[in-house]
Design a protein that fits this description.
It is a single chain. The protein has 13 helices and eight strands. The chain is of the alpha/beta class. The chain has two domains: 100 residues, 434 Repressor (Amino-terminal Domain) (Orthogonal Bundle), CATH 1.10.260; 193 residues, Endonuclease, Chain A (2-Layer Sandwich). It starts with a strand and ends with a helix.
Amino acid sequence: MNIEITRGRSTSRIPDDSLTDTGPTVLRMLLGVQLRRLREERRISLEKASETIRGSRSKISRLELGRTGFKQRDVADLLTLYGLTDEAERATLLTMAKEANLPGWWHSYSDLVPSWFDSYLGLEQAADVIRGYEVQLIPDLLQTRDYARAVIRLTHQDITSAEIERHVELRMKRQRILHRPNAPRLWTVIDEAALRRPIGGPAVMRAQFEHLIDIAELNHVTVQVMPFSAGGHAASGGPITILRMPQPQLPDVVYLRQLTGAVCPDKPSDVQRYWHIMNQLGIQAEPSTRTRKILHWSINRLSRH
């Protein structure tokens, strides 16, 4: 299905295969952008919009950010409030609302995935650029199957072996985005602590280092190591992920993972600050050519023990 929205000078097109490849997340975000633009053009407050759909101010905010599903009735009522009478345009937006509620491919793992992480999966699968910094572990998208299994055992000690394998399967399926024709640009900085931490034993770590060397050969993947010798740096507070969508009208998403949830600061000044931090990390970390040497050294170190 091709969807094109034109209002003023803004045009959004979603290609036929986007729903299959990325799920409903981008559709929700695009529809949210359109609803916000319509509301602001008519100078209608969040409070007035929320009254129209019998909801709260925060619900309108979530709808406009694309962080929740859409009810057809709510969208229709908002379009009426915003004075949108063009039947073709209304039909397009209502179709988007319907398609935005379709489950992503990862929905079959919903019994394993909390709601806050479900939202992230949709963003990750849709992203055009993924920038990240990891402190303790190899990033999910770069883990081998055995390393992922060892990590999941550590972080999910109360689940069955079968559930662990489903978690591993989900992680491996997420990694397919790195090998599809429209693969995102992945640029990650890994703290030296993650290389030093023996997850799963020497054989697992050796295979993980070899995998990092191999995958870093892809033109769209950059891996850097932040060495201990660099001292302190701006991202010492924890892991950071920044996602940039292919549609220029969609905002960048900052994702800060925590033990039982995640925070996504969305103020433009906060997002800009995290971009600045990521750029600083890229300067402070070892360049990719030096990183390959560090990984080879790590393999040799394991062989000596």
